[in-house]
Amino acid sequence: MFLRTCPFFLDYYIIFMTKITYKNYQGNFKTIDVDNGLSVMEGAIQNDIPGIDADCGGSMACATCHVYVEEEWFNKLQKAEEAEVDMIDMAFEPKKNSRLSCQLIVSEELEGLTVTTPAKQS
Amino acid sequence: MIKTDAIIIGAGPVGLFAVHQLGIKGLNAVVIDNLDKAGGQCIELYPDKPIYDIPAVPECTGEELTKNLIEQIKPFKTDFYFNERVDEVKQDKNNWIVKTNNNNEFTAPNIIIAGGVGSFEPRKLSLKDTEKYEGKSLFYSVKRKEDFKNKNISIFGGGDSALDWALELSKFSKITLIHRRNEFRGAPHTLTEIKKLENEGKISIKTPCQLESIEGSKDVKSVTVKFEDGKSEKIETDIILSFFGLIMKLGPITEWGLNMNKKTIEVNSKNFETNKKGIYAVGDICTYPGKLKLILSGFHEVALASVECFKRAKPNEKYRFEFTTSSKNIQERLGKK
After folding, report:
1. CB B46 to CB A96 under 8 A?
2. What digits encode the pLDDT tens for the residues B121-175?
3. I want to staple B209 with a disulfide (CB 3.0 to 4.6 A). Which of A115, B98, B225, B311 is the partner?
4. Number of CB pairs, chain A paired with chain B, less than 8 A apart
5. Which CATH superfamily is domain B2-121+247-333 in?
């Protein structure tokens, strides 16, 4: 959680952030504070995390923001809707714990989430 | 060499509207696209999905939007070059020369790149060394179904293409349909038909499993699939068909000397020109401060770019801003007078 001061107004506004860890297939990782409300995909794009392409911009139309979610987290996440599972069929090497990161919305419940990017996206 | 006022690369919604914006200003254009039809992502990725943010159109699908745009630009009788990819862009004084992989050459003072996220290509199998089978025993699309008569065919994928071809080819070949999960995604009647053929023994369905290896030397002899429970099975195979949708590749655009930012082209937001005079980028492929990847943003971008196109195509004429509601010139060009 972070407290930010807004330069234009005197009062404070609060932006809640959540720590998300992005791991690549070789095991290297980076932990980023992502604004709540953004998707895990947007968190990666805004912070130049490699391994997530997101060609379609988050419209669930390309499967190039595909990630693997560790099992304990996978079960905690809201279940993928049908359209997402259909799209994961198209992803590079999908597994049981595959998700599209554009559909994972960051909130405090996700504090500490780790996602692993596949060897490639297409 | 074909001469025109503007060469539009990409026949998605923004490329189509570019024809309109140029056309009402009295400019000719050609459109080049790597796909076999107009529509771009709207047609390839979400033809049936509703779009809700086209101004004054509360709801329409990607297909309807494309159909209406094509209707809107009919008066301009524009030439489309489909199944062609622009490979080379060269400068020739004040003009640009564009060469396609089909050896067509165009020249114009303006190029509008409305290329989305690049050109679509089939997503290939992730196994190593599959290229050697490509075009011989491994295919990502079916061009002539006669080539697949009396064969053992293994089809990978769970979507419409996989299901439709399984049905069609089962008429004269032995089909194995392989998918990573038990659910298929297709029209209900297709699914019923597939089930029926499975019961009759004409189609064999393997789920939930994925491709583990391909055996063969010059040609494919068999494929091995691995089930979720860890078991493997070898399937005698002459032909592999793989249907895992399309991916988008930027391709040769990166070699044209344009300032790129990740996978997008940097433009100014005054006329959406790139760092090269007379080359514009509009729609999803361009970037500038505040850029939104919306269809409506692309429409705006191409309207402004077309003004600059006019100035370069007709340097001796003064550009006069006109409304379609009142301009006799525009109405004539639209065939309304």
Report:
1. no
2. 888 998 888 999 999 999 998 888 899 999 999 999 999 899 999 999 999 999 9
3. B225
4. 45
5. FAD/NAD(P)-binding domain (3.50.50.60)
Residue B180 pLDDT grade (very low, low, confident, very high; cuts 50, 70, 90): very high
- A103 token code pair: 């559909």
| Extents of the domains making up chain B | 2-121+247-333, 124-244
Q: Which residue of A has its CA nearest to B264?
A: A55
Residue type, A22: Y
Inspect the interface and report whether the beta carbons of B123 and A59 lie closer than 8 Å. no
Q: In angstroms, rounded to a whole number, what is the distance separating the alpha carbons of residues B245 and B97?
A: 33
Residue of B nearest to A98 (CA): B180
Residues of chain A positioned with their CB less than 8 A from the CB of B117: 55-56, 62
Mean pLDDT across B319-325: 95
Alpha-carbon span B18 to B40, nearest angstrom: 14
Closest chain A residue to B47, measured at CA: A61
CB distance B317 to B309 below 8 Å: no
Q: What one-character DSSP code corresponds to residue B235?
A: E
Smallest Cβ distance to A55: which of B46, B117, B159? B117
Reported for B256-260, long-range contacts at CB under 8 A and 24+ positions apart, including other chains, are B256/B89
- Its ipTM equals 0.72
- How far away is chain A from the Cα of B304, in angstroms, using its nearest Cα? 24
- Comparing C-alpha atoms, which of B53, B55, B11, B50 is closest to residue B34? B11
Q: Is pLDDT of A1 > 50?
A: no
Of A78, A89, A72, A87, the residue nearest A40 (C-alpha): A78
The answer as to CATH 3.40.50.1820 being correct for domain B124-244 is no
Matching residue, tokens 């720590």: A19
Domains of chain A, first to last:
18-116 (3.10.20.30)
Token digits for A26?
Answer: 């070789």
State the burial class of residue B72 (Cβ atoms within 10 Å of its Cβ: 0-12, 13-18, 19+): middle
Contact A89 B263 (CB under 8 A): no
CA dihedral B205, B206, B207, B211 (to 10 degrees): -140
Quote the pTM value: 0.79
